[in-house]
Amino acid sequence: MGRINFDLQELQAFVAVADRSSFSQAAEDLFLSQPALSRRIDKLEETLGVKLFERTTRRVQLTNVGRVFLANVRTALDELEGAILGVSDLAAHRTGIVTLACVPTAVRYFLPDVLRGFSERFPKIRVRIHDESAQDVLNLVLAGEADFGINFAGSEDPEIDFLPIYREDYVLAMRPEHPLAKRKKLSWKETAKERHISVSRSSGNRSLIDNALAGIEKHPAVFYEVNHVSGILALVEAGMGVAAVPRLSLPQHPGAPVIGVPLVNPPVYRTLGLIRKRGRVTPPAAQTLFSMLQQALITGKGSPS
């Protein structure tokens, strides 16, 4: 390819379409007509000499080359924004942006206090948070689209540095009036006759439980499967059965419609960790937030009571 000849608007158009997976929605976001947006994408593809999107009447999706290019463009745009805001300010942690990927549990219980302190110290630094599933968080960190992550997955990935910070036990979720609700703890064998609700077999939560129960003679029977823990809790609240869930997924307020009893024999738990792509240099502002989270979570200041 010869001299690079495209402008910032074309890159912004590309990111908008990639984020929305839709030309019409991206055009609305950018206050453009759809033909004008299409011309920008066409020009960018022509300049690069590659197709960035596969387009059908039903959907728009990135090509393999487009996915790689997207990660690079996001990085370039963030770096450009930092340069515009001022190199000296960015180096001094006075302006900039940090991109963090984390599971929803972290957003609810671990992030608020630390982000509040971070914002008080560095009020002009913006934080972009991707609250996604464990696998999506891992993928964002591996792709370089997030500076670091808070996740339950990644400890066995050779490309990931995993710093464990919190251990979360699994409990049996049920309605407060359930006959087992007054128990202090329950063995898995004691739950075998209950109607269990579970996430699908593709879920990391399901794999963790199945592996832990591999040596149990009689497994609990799963009567209902859903894709997310929030769906499990909705069915438990409706009285459809019980479910093994991470403790922090339960509502924490008094009088909650779902309660949890610790599970033993065997106990099942998952470990939350700060994750970074191995060998990747963390930008200064992101490193500061990473260190603050590490300190707060290890000392318990950022953990749920």
TrEMBL record:
Gene Ontology MF terms in the entry: DNA binding; DNA-binding transcription factor activity
Entry keyword annotation includes Zinc: no
UniProt keyword Transcription present: yes
CDD domains recorded: PBP2_LTTR_like_4
Gene3D superfamilies: 3.40.190.290, Winged helix-like DNA-binding domain superfamily/Winged helix DNA-binding domain
Keywords, sorted A to Z: DNA-binding, Transcription, Transcription regulation
Pfam families (UniProt xref): HTH_1 (PF00126), LysR_substrate (PF03466)
A cellular component term, taken from the record's GO annotations: cytosol
Domain (HTH lysR-type): residue spans on this chain: 6-63
Similarity comment text for this entry: Belongs to the LysR transcriptional regulatory family.
PANTHER family: HTH-TYPE TRANSCRIPTIONAL REGULATOR YBHD (PTHR30419), NITROGEN ASSIMILATION TRANSCRIPTIONAL ACTIVATOR-RELATED (PTHR30419:SF8)
Name of this chain's protein: LysR family transcriptional regulator
The organism's taxonomic lineage, starting at the top: Bacteria, Pseudomonadati, Pseudomonadota, Betaproteobacteria, Burkholderiales
